[in-house]
Amino acid sequence: MTYEIFVSKKPLDGREIEEIKGLPVVKPIQVHGNLVAFVGKGKSRRPKADAVVTDSKEIWIGVLAADCLPIFLIGEGVVGVVHAGWRGTLKGIAFNAVSYINKFSRVKKAIFGVSICKFCYEVGEDVRSLFPPMYDGCFKEIGEGKFLFDIKTANLIQLKSAGVRDFEFLEGCTCCDNHLFYSYRKEKTQKRNLFAIRIT
Ligand SMILES: [Zn+2]
What's the 137 CA to ligand 1 centre distance in angstroms? Predict the structure, then answer.
């Protein structure tokens, strides 16, 4: 199966992108939860979910992010896209999305989109303390109750535990590469980067 990925860059605001190359983009209403929604062709309403899956060649599915981690999932005749911030990661959204797809297909590969990197993502003890021991290696203490969080590795652990073996990583950090991508933490912007995928 072949697929195509679209990543928006500044000054494009992903929130305003409704179609790419003449095909509509279905973007869920993201709630930092762990629900997965299936969308087929013609379904233009936006599901409330943080992961979307489709088997249609007539739409793109995409998530909006500005520091959170977008993850593309490649199955057989099916693709998915996940929005994972620290809340979604904690709730297992990536694991859920793989499990969902694996019920009728098989996730062969996960592609990590551009998020904030492990040198830029600072969280407090309040966030760190919520994560179970399997994620201990994803936090680096930097003093004064602050930690650096490696959200990519946290999701890598999760995807591996869901059975995914093949990984690819798109280059960049929303914060380090702020001239290319929007970063909520760096700019406090409401604008978003769009990470979309379609089956070709
Ligand atoms: Zn960075």
Answer: 18
